Amino acid sequence: MSLQKEVREVDVQVLEGSGIGHYERELKEFADTAALCQLMDLVISVDTIVAHLAGPIGKTTWVLLPYAPDWRWLLDRDDSPWYESVKLYRQDAGREWVSVLQAIEGDLKSGAVKAQFPNSD
Fold this sequence. Notes:
- This protein is α/β, with parallel strands linked by helices.
- The chain is 36% helix and 12% strand.
- The chain has two domains: 1-39, no CATH class; 42-121, no CATH class.
- The protein has helices at 9-18, 30-38, 49-54, 98-110, 112-116; strands spanning 43-46, 61-65, 86-90.
């Protein structure tokens, strides 16, 4: 399911053809997005409002960060002091996303969601 509110028209077409649920028209306010976050087993996001909605409500959330992230994410750690349920995936000095996506893929395949947050239901 896509939790992104505003999506380019070309991306809407891709989402519609993929079978991924997209609720742009139904998301009127942040509370609507937070309610959808509650329905997820896991929220995977870049540094957007979705990450900042899912974290405070305790939803297991994995955030993809660039090499030089916003100051709120600090440096050299894979957790957040602000949100206990958040795990951070950071680009390394090479600034490539491939290694970040591979780390997420590995954690998904290994069942790391349950291992990291056993009460994430």
